[in-house]
Amino acid sequence: MDEHEQRRATSFGEDASAYDRARPSYPAGLLDELLAGRDPRATGVLDVGCGTAKAALLFLQRGCEVLGVEPDARMAEVARGHGVKVEVSPFETWDRAGRTFDLVTAAQAWHWVDQEAGARAAAAALVPGGRLAIFWNLLEHSPEAKAALSEVYAGYPELRHPIALGAARAEHRPNEGIDAAGAFGPQRITAYEWSVTHRRDEWLDQLPTHSDHRLLPPERLAALLAAVGDVIDGLGGSITLLYETVCWSAERVAS
């Protein structure tokens, strides 16, 4: 990871409470899928890059035994405030001390992990028949909102392809790192569509939690937020985000 990417990866903890407050959750159907056929009370979950426990808390509320691994102590402290046990470490060098789990998950975090080393570490942490599941929320704006917001973001070329502007829906291909680990069966790719309406202040609260936005100079970020706020005001004071949660999962095969 180069210096710029390292700066992005560690930017979330600069305001961990805002991340916890503003970032979206994950759909219930995803947990239904990952816990299908399992007794949640007998299911151990290891959540990689757990952040402030946006996903880990959902498994904890289902009755699972959950442990988070998080490289940023500031994010981990917020997660602990939600009752989630967290060990502070990069996943690739985390000492699992012989422990094994039924599920290894990574929500909105796997791109910060070395793909092959991370998959090997996940395989080592899983019982045979256990499952690795990595997932992200992709978002899209309504055509009207996207057209107006695109005009604003055209003035911020340093953001290049801001996720907060929306992600083009594309074919979801298998994760090469999982296959390269040689420890997993065929990958299963599932997607869940849902929507959330954000009021102006809610969306402006979320934007600075995106790493590319956080790296903007303060005056540039303030100007961007003001311009986005004007767009939302022009749209009636709120915007509806169309989310697609995509999950890559694979079962740990016996050695």
Structure write-up:
It is a single chain. With 255 residues, the protein is α/β, with parallel strands linked by helices. It has a domain of 175 residues: Vaccinia Virus protein VP39 (Rossmann fold), CATH 3.40.50. The chain has a 7-stranded mixed beta sheet with strand order 3-2-1-4-5-7-6. α2 packs across α9 and α7 runs antiparallel to α11.
Strand arrangement, largest sheet?
Answer: 3-2-1-4-5-7-6
Percent range for β-strand residues: 15-25%
- What oligomeric arrangement do these chains adopt? single chain
Rg computed from alpha carbons, rounded to a whole number of angstroms: 19 Å
Computed structural class: alpha/beta
By CATH, the architecture of the domain at 3-139 and 167-194 and 242-251 is named 3-Layer(aba) Sandwich
In CATH terms, the superfamily of the domain at 3-139 and 167-194 and 242-251 is: Vaccinia Virus protein VP39
The DSSP helix count reads: 11
Q: What share of residues is helical? A: 25-40%
- CATH topology type of the domain at 3-139 and 167-194 and 242-251: Rossmann fold
Distance, first to last CA = 31 Å
Indicate the low-confidence ranges by residue numbers.
none
